[in-house]
């Protein structure tokens, strides 16, 4: 085999997990080459809140958290069930705190609790304060020129907004990890270097083929290759082939996430799982036809094609996304569907975090995505449902608001439902009474796909017969998600990506259990 260069570990991708894996390998004394397809580091992680769900970690402990691993395991099992192997679930749960200790041993990396309720508030041992931490903010001075290499936030990328002063959430996570990596002599991070293929010798992955400046290079990886390159959410052909609901226009995953490391894995015999799955959310529709991840719904109701409610509108976004997909599959919901609300927000939809800011009302009206009626009957004809039905739906809902209990969908019944209702968590049962009445169009949005290469508890990629493909590891959205068909709590995507990347690096370094 003719190699262009050699190292110990190749890391594919540069989201949070990939950078954690690269840092762990470099700190273990290994020579690491990290390849990122696009001209910016960070992937979807850079757009994100940067939160990580890691039970019983040091940052939680410092804040006085009294959770136990037994409770966390009971919760996780109750939510995820047997959809993914128990050993892989345990690897995630049992290594989170140690992975965070590793990160916090670096002077660039510090985390604090950001209370965020677990997403299944009625599951046993769910925590109202969550198990969720975030990186500390970073100033422009601290990151310096490295900021030019960091993928900016979605509002900057899509709307051309100015860069925010401070780096917060995912920006801070990627920024801090890049600073930590720049201090490692053994880590070589490369932009605009797309992974194309694995090199296989005697059944083992021994390196990769990457593109660089119009040519191909073969890089030998003596210890192994970690594929942590996101999902295939930006690849319309793969989405269609694997039956992922929704459209590219509703995807808020990063542009480079085309799924090549998953495709190349399938080609060398890797097994895959959960390929129709994504991290879901309702998506507010913008005039350009995109739908974006929307959380913090503090009023209004969603109605289906019959003018009836079909879900708890304040449920955690992935659960709500799954309700949308189910209602569509039942034939009772057509996209776009409508959020109906009254005038108490001055005509603006009651959504706290639409990911990309909502622009001028007239643009939404011109695009046909915002409707208005002096009465509910008028609004009903605007959104194509019968007046009687919409009036009856709103009257029933207002009755629940007056009684303080939603008998149909138990909106407000879990801590997460009340989380965005201000200090102390008021009820999200906000009546719809004050005209004129409004409707905003919604669709389904995804934060990225979560089906991918099947791994064991050491993040080693498996063949269909359960045997390991030596030399190949996967994490994050490149790996079939440990959380299966659920989103147990904020910070699961990045938290699990970081944990399995860390496990992979330790296995390659020979320092893992
Ligand atoms: C607004 C928003 C907020 C969110 N908040 C949170 C949160 O707080 N906590 C949480 O856990 N999750 C959050 N999520 C979800 C989370 O950000 C993603 O699921 C997660 O970051 C995915 O991580 P990843 O490492 O798998 O992929 P990514 O972070 O997307 O990184 C993948 C990288 O791999 C690169 N790549 C792809 N193909 C190749 C190739 N062939 N060669 C080289 N490089 C390649 C891509 O260009 C990309 O840079 C949020 C998402 C959004 C959109």
Brief synopsis:
The protein is of the alpha+beta class and 513 residues long. It contains 16 helices and 21 strands. It folds into 2 domains: 315 residues, FAD/NAD(P)-binding domain, CATH 3.50.50; 167 residues, Succinate dehydrogenase/fumarate reductase flavoprotein, catalytic domain (Flavocytochrome C3, Chain A, domain 1, Alpha-Beta Complex), CATH 3.90.700.10.
Features:
single chain, 513 residues, alpha+beta, Flavocytochrome C3, Chain A, domain 1, eight-stranded mixed sheet, six-stranded antiparallel sheet, 16 helices, globular, binds flavin-adenine dinucleotide
Task: Write up what this structure looks like.
- By secondary structure, this protein is of the alpha+beta class.
- The protein contains 16 helices and 21 strands.
- The protein folds into two domains: 5-208 and 226-276 and 450-509, 3-Layer(bba) Sandwich (FAD/NAD(P)-binding domain); 280-446, Flavocytochrome C3, Chain A, domain 1, CATH 3.90.700.10.
- Strand 20 and strand 21 (468-474) form a beta hairpin.
- 56% of the residues are buried.
- Flavin-adenine dinucleotide (FAD) is lined by residues 12-18, 35-38, 43-45, 47-51, 194-195, 228-230, 252, 254, 256-258, 260-261, 279, 293, 355, 447-448, 476-477, 490-495, 497.
What is the CA-based Rg, rounded? 23 Å
Task: Kindly identify the CATH topology of the largest domain.
Answer: FAD/NAD(P)-binding domain
DSSP helical segment count: 16
- The CATH architecture of the largest domain can be named as 3-Layer(bba) Sandwich
Mean pLDDT: 97
CATH homologous superfamily assignment of the largest domain:
FAD/NAD(P)-binding domain
Q: List the ions, cofactors and other small molecules found in this model.
A: flavin-adenine dinucleotide
From the spread of the alpha carbons, the general shape counts as globular
Q: Which structural class do the helices and strands define? A: alpha+beta
Q: Tell me the strand percentage band.
A: 15-25%
What characterizes the major β-sheet? 8 strands, mixed
CATH class call of the largest domain = Alpha Beta
Distance between the termini: 32 Å
Question: Which residues sit in consecutive blocks of at least 5 with pLDDT less than 50?
Answer: none
């Amino acid at each position: 085999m003719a190699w262009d260069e050699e190292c110990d570990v190749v890391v594919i991708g540069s989201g949070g997990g990939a950078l954690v894996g690269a840092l762990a390998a470099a700190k273990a004394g290994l020579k690491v080459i990290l390849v990122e397809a696009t001209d910016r580091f960070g992937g979807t992680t850079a757009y994100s809140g940067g939160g990580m769900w890691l039970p019983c970690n040091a940052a939680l402990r410092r804040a006085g958290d009294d959770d136990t691993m037994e409770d966390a395991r009971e919760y996780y099992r109750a939510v995820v069930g047997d959809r993914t192997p128990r050993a892989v679930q345990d690897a995630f749960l049992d290594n989170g705190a140690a992975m965070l200790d590793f990160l916090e041993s670096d002077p660039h990396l510090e985390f604090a609790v950001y209370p965020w309720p677990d997403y299944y508030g009625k599951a046993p041992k769910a925590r109202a304060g969550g198990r969720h931490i975030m990186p500390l903010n970073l100033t422009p001075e601290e990151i310096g020129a490295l900021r030019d290499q960091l993928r900016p936030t979605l509002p900057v990328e899509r709307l051309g907004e100015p860069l925010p002063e401070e780096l917060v959430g995912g920006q801070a996570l990627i920024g801090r990890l890049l600073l930590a990596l720049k201090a490692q002599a053994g880590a070589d991070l490369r932009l605009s270097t797309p992974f194309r293929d694995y090199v296989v010798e005697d059944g083992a992955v021994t390196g990769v083929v990457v593109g660089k400046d119009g040519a191909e290079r073969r890089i030998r990886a003596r210890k192994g290759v970690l594929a942590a390159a996101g999902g295939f959410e930006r690849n319309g052909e793969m989405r269609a082939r694997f039956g992922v609901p929704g459209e590219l226009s509703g995807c808020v995953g990063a542009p480079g996430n085309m799924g090549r490391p998953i495709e190349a894995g399938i080609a060398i015999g890797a097994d895959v799982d959960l390929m129709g799955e994504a991290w879901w959310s309702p998506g507010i529709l913008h005039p350009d036809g995109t739908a974006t991840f929307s959380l913090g719904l503090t009023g209004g109701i969603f109605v289906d094609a019959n003018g009836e409610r079909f879900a708890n509108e304040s449920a955690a976004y992935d659960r709500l996304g799954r309700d949308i997909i189910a209602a569509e599959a039942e034939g009772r919901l057509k996209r776009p569907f409508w959020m109906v609300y009254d005038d108490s927000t001055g005509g603006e939809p009651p959504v706290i975090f639409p990911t990309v800011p909502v622009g001028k009302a007239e643009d939404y009206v011109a695009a046909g995505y915002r409707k208005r009626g002096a009465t509910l009957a008028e609004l009903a004809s605007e959104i194509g449902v019968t007046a009687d039905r919409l009036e009856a739906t709103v009257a029933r809902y207002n009755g629940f608001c007056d009684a303080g209990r939603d008998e149909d969908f138990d909106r407000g019944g879990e801590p997460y439902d009340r989380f965005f209702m201000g200090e102390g968590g008021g009820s999200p049962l906000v009546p719809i009474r004050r005209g004129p009445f409004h409707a905003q169009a919604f669709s389904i949005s995804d934060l990225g796909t979560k089906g991918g290469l099947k791994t064991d508890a050491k993040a080693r990629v498996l063949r269909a017969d359960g045997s390991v493909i030596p030399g190949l590891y996967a994490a994050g959205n490149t790996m079939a998600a440990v959380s299966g068909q659920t989103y147990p709590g904020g910070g699961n995507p990045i938290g699990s990506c970081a944990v399995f990347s860390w496990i992979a690096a330790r296995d390659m370094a020979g320092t893992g259990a």
